[in-house]
Amino acid sequence: MEKPDSPTIQKARQVSALLKQLSDDEIEKIAPLFRVRNIPRGTTVLRPGEGRGRFGVVVSGELDLMEDTELKGNPLLLGRLREGGLLAHPTIFDVETPHISVVAHEESRLLVMSKESFENMLDHYPEIGIKILKEIIRVQFIRLRSMADRLAKVF
Asked: How far apart are CA 51 and CA 17, in angstroms?
């Protein structure tokens, strides 16, 4: 993975609610902590039980969040992350790894921050870290509410 260039950072700021809320100065401070990951269509980014300890922003493309079911070969589509979507792996918070897969629905480009870089950001730029943590929590609550609504329609 390479360091992000200026056009990638600018594109990410255009599409990401997380990065839109940060000032130019704040972006300049944390941009070196990100890496760019280009993912070909159909590539499995994460397998069930893998701990990657990263979070990222979808700069372009789409990723499918899938969970295996009892019916082998018929995974359940939990959601699709599109441009601007936030992908936060639970192990970044020392939580057990989830049993989901993440697969590139189409060619995708991500800005990714490792757990080590995330912790470095929290240590050196706590005010930026708090903004990012608030956005991660906000997005997770929206996803939880959406999943609860979907379940309520089934039952």
From this structure: 25
CATH architecture for residues 6-146: Sandwich (2.60)
**Residue 107: partners with Cβ closer than 8 Å, 6 or more residues away:** 38, 39, 40, 41, 60, 61
Burial of 111 (0-12, 13-18, 19+ CB in 10 A): buried
Q: Is the pLDDT of residue 50 over 90?
A: no
Query: Quick one: tokens of 46?
Result: 């994460």
Would you state the structure tokens that stand for residue 70, as one six-digit string? 């009892």
Domain ranges of the chain: 6-146
Q: Is the dihedral of CA 52, 58, 61, 65 positive or negative?
A: positive
Report the predicted TM-score, pTM, of the whole model to 2 decimal places. Answer: 0.83
What is the 3-state secondary structure of 86-100?
Answer: EEECHHHHCCCCCCE
